[in-house]
Every structure is written in structure tokens, then in C-alpha cells.
Amino acid sequence: MYDPKFEKAIQQKMEELEFRPPESVWVNIEKAVVVKRRRRSAFLWRYLLPAVFVAAAAGLYWRHVDTPAKPADGKTTHPIAGSGVASGPAADNSAAGSSVVSRPTGGADAAARSMAQAGRTAGGGPTDLSVARAGSSRSAGRMSIAEHDRRDRHVRAGETSLGDQTAALGEAATTGRSEPDGRVELAGRSEPAGQAEPAGRPQAAGPKKPAAWFFLPGLADQRLTPQVQASALNTKKSNSAAMAGLLHPLRRWEAGFVAGGGLSRLNRLNSEQARSALAPSTTSFYTISNATSPSNHYISNVQPEASFEGGIYLQRPLSDRWIFNTGMNLHYYSNRISVGQQVTTYVQSSVSYLLATTVQTAATAAMYSAGDTRSVINKYYFLELPVGLQWKVNKSRLLPIFVEGNVSLSRLMGASALFYNAKTGLYSKEGDVVNKTQVTVGSALLVGLPFHGVNIQVGPQIQYGLTPLVNTQGVGDQHLLYTGIRLVIIPGRK
Amino acid sequence: MDHHQLVKDCLKGDGVAQKQLYEHFAGAMLGVCYRYTKSMVDAEDVLQEGFIMVFKNLHQFAFSGELGGWIRRIMVNTAINYLKKNSRYQTELLFTDSVLHPVSDEDPEVSLNTKELADLIRQLPPGYQAIFNLHAVEGYSHVEIGKILGIKEGTSRSQYARARSLLISWIRKYTAANKNESTYVRP
Questions:
Q1: Inter-chain contact B136–A7, Cβ cutoff 8 Å?
Q2: Cα angle for residues A217, A218, A219 (degrees, 5° grid)
Q3: Which residue among A1, A391, A438, A469 has its CA within the 20 to 30 Å range from the CA of A16?
Q4: Tens-digit pLDDT profile for residues A255-284
């Protein structure tokens, strides 16, 4: 047995042994720890952020669906069109509150109701009319431009001559209304109260057709009350608004989903540059790693692998031909590289020993020499923010064709990849060598396939990374190239 | 300094707390790493890896124990792994009985200062150095050392005995040389 005094003395002395480490040690530790923290937060971003955006897009979409469409000018729409399909409270009120004779038989009921509505306006004020109009605003959009033109002609004709009243009535008769004598009793006229139809008389049931244009301003000038004249003036203004809305349709944002799949590839390393970059370090590398001789060394092949994307899609038509789109995608790229044997020796620390200025961190990461004994799939996850313009090549509604160009700003969310290190001549997982922010350009040829109100676009797509994937010098620039099929789905409005 | 609170702050990702923890223990831990390696650069490498391991595994720290001891164990383990992985140390970490050193029965008084003693320990062959540090300084038993280094308990005992005697002889020589130097009168 030994005298423990010696051990105790040694222990005591060694407890006092302290040195002041250089600043570089903490810098490297901090770097490694911060990278780890960022990876954890990137994990959250990778899954949480796209989910939030998808949920927000879906919410916006359903909100749009639930909200009734409003007219372009935010006021009223065509009164006659509104009366043509008048339904609900407005139509019922017009029947109940009016003091005019209404003979809603056959096709004449729409015109009669229109007149009754005018009569109610005379009694109840213009506010009621606007309510009725608002309630029937949806039908304005269903009228064809030709129909509007025809109606507009009638308005102008009515304004010019009283004699045209007969012609207008005649036309009204020819549009299928079954008024036997062509007589229409206009609202606001001084009919005896006794001749009025009893309030609450049931309206004739039947298919609701868009009403024909039926308005007689000349007559209103002579006999209608001032309230009705004011209502007629409002009508003319709203006519113009409706026309403007049809000629220049409202272009809204539309939300949808985008998905795609294909192949991504990385262009081959510049072998000449890599060889020359490797040359100064071959001695140290092969001495340390006991790997194959330098003469057998070559740069590995890079082969394409599967790639896919998915995300939200927003678009807004700028004109009949041009459509602006944007969105957010999570894009997975991968490529296959060939590497050699795994290097088991502690190369990075040895390098730092031989070259005192080089201090490496990731000591436990697996490293591979160059070669083709095994293949490894490098994986990258990018969050992309694309901005693009689509041009509609043809005017076909059944099979529209779009050409798209886009620019995308993307951020690396995560990667599991081996990178070639020209200093050591090895492949290793080094997160710092990747350019995490990428700018890519892309193009697509898409065919539109309307399907039960759902707008589907599908077609080939190509995307190229303008920013080099790795930022290491001496091994040549490597850019991601993606080719695949893209599918855009934009649910239609209800 | 409340180490437990410091650990909690570090676990929250507080960078300032992490630096505080590092600065508080780095000096002593570099001393530990220095004893196991052959150069200061290697010692700094071990310190760096060790602290990365500390921050990576800080959630495993049981608040019942002492933080300094926990970090020290990590540093020792990191240093041993470093010796195993590093090719320079691998060749000399062979635990053979081929080289025998004289055993001294009398233990000298350790009059060297801390740095001098540490430098003498570092002059030991890597195998001896590791076993001597683990047993004499860290207080590991030979059974534990056998498990850590993957050797037999008996090998650890014999290696330690040789390391100890070698170190004692060096201490004697060093002390004698210093005495001679101090009594030397310049003409």
C-alpha cells in the first residue's frame, strides 16, 4: 500500500491549477451552442409557420365565402334587375305596402312588382328602395352586357320622347308578359283608393325571370310625384354603376393551395478547382486519416433525387391577361452524392493541432473521404416566398394556358447533408457552409382545368437557385435546380 | 454565486448566464484538461468540446449535486475520449507491461509549485498520465479506471504504481536540481 499523503499533496496542488483560456474558445463554444438553439427554433418554424399561414388562408377564404358579395361602388345596383328577382322581405313589402293595382300574371308580374316597388318608394321614402335594391344586388351580376346595352338604349329613348312610351309598352308586351291590353298601372299615380288591390294579395307563383327593362321617365316628368322623380334619378346613376361594374369586373384576391413534385439536382463540383484546393492539405489529411492515396482521390458525383413542395397560394388578376401571384411554400430538395469510407480518426482536432490557427468544433460528426463506396442523400428544407406573374396565352375559358415567371426568396429551415471541405478533403456535416438565404427564379407552363367551380392549374415547372448553395471557396459554385410538375388549386366562390 | 439559478437561466437559453457559467469554471477546467493532454492547444480543444457537451447536456444535471463536480466529470470524460480518438495519443496509450520503471518506497515531500508538478505529470507517457490523473487526482478506483479505459483492474494498478514511482523519481531529481541551482554561487 502507498502512503496516501503523496496522493493528497498531489490532489491539493492540482486543485489550484488554473489557466486563463483564450477568447477564441468561448467564441467557438457560443457559436456551437447558438447554432443548436437556432436549429431548435428552425424546427418550430418549419412546421408551425406554414401551418399558421395555411390556417390563416383558409380562414380568409371561408370568410369571403360567407360574406355576401357587395356591389362595386358600395351603394346600390340596378333597380329593375333587382325587381326582376325580387325575393324575401323587399318583394313582400312591396306587395303589402303599395296602393297600386298589381296584376302579376305570367311574365308581367316582374314589371308589375317593379312598379309596385316604385309606389312603395313614393310612400315610404327612398331608403326603402335602397334596401330592396341591396337585397337583390346579386342578380345584377348575372345580366349580360348585351341586355344592359338594350336596357340602356331604352332609358335614353325614354328620356327623349314621351311618344316612345307606347313603343316601350309595346316592347314590354312582346317580351312575354300576358297583360291583355298592355295597360300597366304605374306607381304613384292618383288611382282611386277603392280600385287598389287589397294589401297582402299573394303574388303569382312562378319562375322568377330577370325583368325586362321597363321605365318611363317622360311619364314620370308629367305625372309622377317628386319622390318618384328622385327615385328615377337614382336609378339612372345606379345603371351607370352597374354598367361600369360589368365592363370593369372587380378583381379580388383568391386563395388556394399549391403542390408539386419532381427532381432536384445540384450541379457537379468543379473538380479542377477542388483538386487544386485540396492539394496543399493532402499531406496532412492522408497522414492523419490513413485514407487512400491522394492519386486515387476524385470528386464525387452528384445525382438528382426526389423533391416536392406544398403551401398556400394567393393570386389577383391585374387585367384580362395578367395575374399576379404570391404565397408561401415549404420546398424539400434532395440530391444523392457518392462518398468514400467513413473516417474514424479525430481529424478535425488533429488539424487544429497541426495548424494552430484552425479551431474546429463539431468533433463527433461523421466524416467521409471522397470516393464511391456509398451514396448519401443530402436533404434541404426551404421555406419559400415566391412572387410571380402569369400571362394568359389564350382566351379560352375551357382550357386556358398560362405562362408564369417568378422570383422566390427562400430560407433554409433545415438540412441533413454532407458537404465537401476543401481544407480537409473530407465530406462532413457542416451547417455553416450553406447559404441559408437563397434567391431562386422559376418558370412554369400551366393549363387551367375548371372543375365544378374549382380552378385547377397544372403543368411543368423549372426553378433555379441564383445563390450558390455553399459558401466555401475553391470548390466551385453549386446551384439547386428543380424540375417538376406543379398543381395549383383555387376553390371557387359559392 | 447561485449555481443552480445559473443553470436554470442557461436552460432558458440566456446567453449571459451561459457566459457567466463558462467564465466561472473555465480556468479550473482548463487546468484539468491541461493535465490530461500534451499541449495547451489540445487542452483548449478538450475544454471547448467539454463545454459544448456541458451546455448540450445541462438538462441532465441533477440539482442535488455540485455543479463544479459535474462539469469536471464531463471534462475528464471528454479528455479521455480525446485521447482515445486522437491518433497521436492512440499509439502511446497502449497498456503493455513491456516498459518497467523502478519503484521507490519512500515518498518525497512535494515542494514543487502547481505548474511544475502539472508539467511533470504531463511528461508521463499518455497511458501512465491518464491512469495517474484518474486515480491520484480524480480519486477513481482501479475498477472504475478499468471500465473507463477498457483495461483490466490489475493493469490499472500496475500502471499506476509505475507512473507513481516514475513521477516520484522525477520530483526528486527536479527538487535536487533546483536546490543545486539555488546554492550555486556565481563567480
A1: yes
A2: 90
A3: A1
A4: 999 999 999 988 655 555 555 544 444 443
